[in-house]
Each structure stands twice: as structure tokens, then as C-alpha cells.
Design brief:
Length: 120
């Protein structure tokens, strides 16, 4: 991997946008944890880092899903959204659909009412 690979974080303070470059790690790992679920996420992430999926994107996503499902904080929740970030220069992110509670979602939108849903 190119040691100079970064992601860009867009920050809006209510009036202005600022950009922050975040260096991509050399292994699949958390880029940044923010928001009211931060403490719960970090707890699950630390727990799962001791298992067979440590240092994988699967571990990060498992931690995120468990945070949404198990947290007692009602200020967040719902269906997780999944984006893959490729650690290669000049590459773009890839969006993925997921199945959550036996329903199909893409970018947070439910897809179960579309025609030919078995092709998705």
C-alpha cells in the first residue's frame, strides 16, 4: 500500500465546511469513531479484536452492527450502511447492500418493495 493514502473527512459546523485528511492504516482498521455511540463501539471493537477476525474490516463492521443493536442509547440506530474503502491510490469507495432483520437495504433504504428483488 502507498503510505500516503488518505480519506477526506467533511466537517460542517452549521455555517462552513472544512476538510480533514485522515491517513489510511496499513491494515483494515477503524478510521475514526465519532458520535454518541463512540463508547459502545469502542467496547465492542476491543472485545472483537481478541477474536479470529481481529485486524479485519469484518471486525469493524461487526462492532458497528453490535453497537447499533445492543446499545441502550436511543439517539442512534436503524440499519447499518456499508462502504468499502480500498487502500490504493486514486481508488474510490464501493457501496454494498446488506440484509438486516431479514430485509434488504442499500444506503439505508429498504429494497424489499422493488420488483425482481432476488436479483439484488
Amino acid at each position: 500500500m502507498n503510505q500516503n493514502s488518505t480519506a477526506t473527512k467533511f466537517i460542517f459546523d452549521g455555517k462552513n465546511w472544512t476538510l480533514e485528511e485522515i491517513k489510511l492504516p496499513n491494515i483494515s482498521d477503524v478510521l475514526q469513531v465519532m458520535g454518541s455511540g463512540k463508547t459502545d463501539f469502542n467496547k465492542f471493537y476491543k472485545k472483537f479484536q481478541t477474536g479470529p477476525n481481529k485486524n479485519t474490516s469484518r471486525n469493524v463492521f461487526h462492532s458497528f452492527c453490535h453497537t447499533l443493536k445492543e446499545s441502550k442509547d436511543n439517539s442512534f440506530g436503524g440499519c447499518p450502511q456499508l462502504v468499502g474503502i480500498i487502500r490504493k491510490p486514486e481508488s474510490t469507495a464501493i457501496t454494498y447492500g446488506i440484509i438486516h432483520d431479514k430485509k434488504r437495504y442499500y444506503l439505508g433504504a429498504i429494497l424489499d418493495k422493488i420488483k425482481r428483488k432476488n436479483n439484488v
